[in-house]
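User: Here's a chain of 167 residues. Predict its fold as tokens.
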Amino acid sequence: TKEIVSIESKELIKRTVRIRKFQRFVPEVSVGTAFTFLKYNSYGTTSDSTGQQFVGTPTENTIKNLNITTMVNFNYYIPNSPLHPLYQIGVGINSGIPTILTGFGLRSNINGIKRIAIAGGIAMTWTKELHDLKVGDKISGTDDIDKDYKYNSAPKFTPYVALQYNF
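Assistant: Prediction complete.
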């Protein structure tokens, strides 16, 4: 007669199946900097021979500055690709110059530079302009000009280039 002998069991095949919701556009929050090119006017005073001060001709200033930004990137998922195109929208956090940014870019998934994104687009910025005063109006000093500055209702548009770290 043959006896039944116990032997050690061995696992022949092991598989893991993951089921998850598929998203073509993957949202991701990022922080970074955006370099903007903004032009705005600043006003000063002029005076006549009697010493009366007037609002002077504006000086056009150009700000080439770095904005600290918070963005939401919508990464386009491409299987097995180290680069992902993205659309982004966010805000610039600079004192005195509110900014909304929107544009397109690339997010890296390459070893060593993961989570880095480079983007560019259009920044909408609101700057302060004179509200009631005009060039040539009589004033008592620069304090009158400072008090008259108000944010303009229509935004100015300027290009931006951004570098970000994604969370």
